[in-house]
Specification:
There is one protein chain. With 481 residues, the chain is an alpha/beta fold. The chain contains 16 helices and 20 strands. Strands 7-4-3-12-13 form a 5-stranded parallel beta sheet, sandwiched between helices. Strands 8-9-10-11 form a 4-stranded antiparallel beta sheet. About 2% of the residues have low confidence.
Amino acid sequence: MTDHPLKLFNSLTRTIETFTPVHEGEARVYTCGPTVYNYPHIGNMRAYVFADVLGRALSHHGYDLTHVINITDVGHLTDDADAGEDKLEKAAAKSERSIWDIAKHYTEAYWDDVKALNIRQPAHWSVATDYIDEMLAFAKRIADEHCYEIESGLYFDVSTVADYGRLARAVTEEGEGRIESVEGKRNAQDFAIWRKTPPGEKRQMEWDSPWGKGAPGWHLECSVMGEKLLGFPFDIHTGGIDHREIHHPNEIAQNQAFCGCGGLSEATNSGARIWMHNNFLVERSGKMSKSAGEFLRLQLLLDKGYHPLAYRMMCLQAHYRSELEFSWDGLGAALTRLKRMVMQAERLKDAEAGDPSHPKFAPLLDKFEAAIADDLNTAIALTAFEEALAVKKVDAGVKRAVIERMDEVLGVGLMDLTREQLRVRPKDAEIDEATIEARLAARIDARKAKDFATSDAIRDELAAAGVEVMDGDPLGWEWKL
């Protein structure tokens, strides 16, 4: 528990609000998860690091957390604005594999990245295709009053709910350009609830419905799973800022229709009391999808010798609502920062955790708690974390307790990390670590003997193999590939 009330930015009201749970003592959170047609790039993963910190902060404040992250394995089209082909159907056709195999493979790859980034497991991984019956029931409930049927499927009429699009602030000309033009639609912003399979076609994923054989719309899935697992209204709905313009406004419209509630001046009418969005990870070239021709996924970072938690550290260094610029130098700096922390924490690992309420740490704990309570300001919280690690002449057990308390929220896993784990071998490295250590030992002996010619020769030999020898390295890492 903490003395600082948790305050969060609500994208719907555009204000900072004190978190007040819908159900006393509980926090119910829904996070828009991945569409499992490809590997997630690290920009996607920023959303889950953010949602993880939010969940940890809620737990830290004493709330009983129920967190749902969905897996979209059907219905998400190649354009977020309800246009194009189903992403899973397209991926399956391209690879000549079963759509179920595609979904399973990329779901497991996503879960691997979740584990590598020390993201806690949610209460539920809700898989869209497990909720088809519930989607049909939801659609039937709202169809008569809020939907209409045309040749391509069942569409939601956005004019039937109050304040449509308030979350998106305003429908810009650019936004209107992203709306699909479909013959028979009443309004440009109307969206598909159920998409009929076109005549003469057969999808790998399709189901019978009152509107013909087909598949649910992407927006319908999240409304249904949120209501089924958390109940309307729940506390917080999270996602990337790209969802704020189309996907989440459409979810909200469905939620309003399902609940029979009024306009969005009352935030709970949206289905969630607070809507939160993290900003993009960007490169200098713009919104990130690829880097130097390489798909920028977590495995690429590992292949280049960076531990995944260096990326988590990079995310924590920026506020979740700020753009985060990616660069290899920036990632390297985050890794160095993490290494320093690990070295300082190593001295505490044999100590039994004591009482964190020590007067020497009180100002730092207050700084940390205030930063987290201030809309998850992890950048400032990190500085308090480092300052606590640097405190000298204090009982190791007390210090360990303070570090563990802070790390509960930041999720670095500092007390479980070792220097050896952070030394990741690049994929293209040809020399093995045993050889490196043996040659370094020989070099140390040569330097002790003042045989600098041999010392320099070994250094040059290692440099030719891609090993940078770091004499006087303050981190004590001695070398890096």
